[in-house]
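Exercise: predict the fold of this chain.
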Amino acid sequence: MTRNSPLLKLENVTKRYAAPEDGGAAPDVLRGIDLELTTGESLAIVGPSGSGKSTLLNIIGTLDQPTNGTVLLGGRQLGALSDGQQAELRSREIGFVFQSHHLLPQCTVLENVLVPTLVVRAGAARSGADARAKSLLERVGLSERLTHRPGQLSGGERQRVAVVRALINEPKLLLADEPTGSLDRAAADNLAELLVELNKETGVTLILVTHALDLAGRMARVQELRDGVLQDRGV
């Protein structure tokens, strides 16, 4: 990848699910999606429920595969990678934050954050993980919660742990799918501000799927997915 190459590039990405049993036409959830993002950019994807926002995010994160088209991350065509290579890429280069935090209830905050480092082979991400986890948890205001378990935290605190967990392996790309959807307004605002600040401070490229237009407006770019087509919009 050259200096001016996009970190992420989607070319003519289409997703079509199986035809319904009544013999109707198979719906195209995504229709010819083109997208480019450079390192450190932030993008919000908005659109009505069922428009395919989460499907698009899952394809970018290799949790799903497109019917047609290509996805390139760092110049590599993700569809050409084996399942094992895709899993390794997800561990090293992509962080995920979902509406549900998916924390392990039996583990402490620190242990939950360190879980992704257990599947990364020796390297920069594995080295110094404990210190990096503590530094990030301090950054998000959870330095006094290291030994707490998820059940002892508020919803906003659990989502902050999930964000730190997503960043622990120093990914190039952070994918957030409705990360504030289960939070009250104050906690949602705090998490939104945190994502913006971490995007600026760490240089991680951020793609955020949300229904909240105020949250979307905090991103550098906003695009709307409607009828399978992704296009620029103002907020």
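Check your answer against the key: The chain has a mean pLDDT of 90.
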